[in-house]
Design goal:
By secondary structure, the chain is of the alpha+beta class. The protein is built from six helices and 15 strands.
Amino acid sequence: MSTPRFSSRLPLVMGFSTLLVLVGGFGSWATMAELSGAVIAGGRIEVDQNRQVVQHPDGGVVAEILVKEGDVVNQGDMLIRLDPTLLTSELTIVEGQLFEYMARRGRLEAEQDQSDTITFDPLLIEQSALNPQVADLAQGQERLFFARRDSIAKEIEQLTKRRDQTEDQLVGIASQVKAIDRQLTLLNGEIESQQRLFDQGLTQAQRLLALQREGASLEGDKAELIALDAQSKGRITELDIEILKLGTRQREEAITQLRENWYGELQLREQRARILEQLDRLDIRAPVSGVVYGMAVFAPRSVIRAADSVLYLIPQDRPLVITAQVPTIHIDKLFLGQDVTLRFSALDQRTTPELFGKVVNLSADAFDNEQTGASFYRAEIQLKDHEIERLPENTTLIPGMPVEAFIKTADRTPIVYLTKPLTDYFAKAFREG
């Protein structure tokens, strides 16, 4: 019985056929299929363009810290409260001086206008109802006002009495002058009669001389009375001037003191307004909604200097800007508006999806990495609309977070990918040759 011969032709045909199919299929795929290219660049979420610095213009001592790193806050929420002790003490001193000036101004204005009552500033009236010490200041000025007014009234009353007495003296003087005039009239008649008798030799010269001496004496008395009358009238004028001066002197003093008082009051008003404004700013509130980041204070009684950064807020409603470092050899493949796929390596890759963005800016020149010395171009990438909403709940993107960017380039066939290194090598070799 003969053994059947095994033919190798069939396996060879099948092998060559399979190889031909594989080579043909791979060739067709390599020449017809298109693969999406990408430039891979490392980057991070940019800090400077996406943070809101929180500062305090005056500084102070921290009394209470109400937030911690990573907290999500809304606009207007309290972040840090500063200690008001120093400002409150300063305000008490300034207000004490200010209300004293205001009370004095009320009295001086009443004296200037010669009013019967004092009209105080509304702020002083309001504070008097709240603070007994302020009420004492106002009442003290009222007592001084009425005391000064009564004192002047008494002085005027005394001067008026003296004036009335002088006027009574004038009446008496006038009566005496009239009496002397009547006596002189009678005496002159008697002198004329005695003169006629003397001329006729019917009387003695002594009698005539006695009458003439009496007339001269009456004339002297009359002259003294006239002089006294003029003196009394002058005294009345002086008293009228003194009475007038009492009123005008108080008014002039009030005007002068008001000018000085107003200057001091104005300075104290400005100081009070400044302190009240500082007290209103003791509560450091969030200027925008966002995530607390980069806190510079961590415990009460810490000191904050004026205009120093207290913390940062990362707004979650603004477009995130991601910066990627693109190697210089790939810059010719990038352009504005280019699609980018982003992976956030700091987040859980199982639950965090890839997000999509686009190139919004390219640096005009290359930068050097100070650590590695490698050159790169800076590409700014912005997430597309609503991409942030695809993140898992309670996931927050914060500045500084590392990002892996796949910047999509032109589609190419697999054969181009395979032959590109060779063609580049030969092109370079031929140029060198």
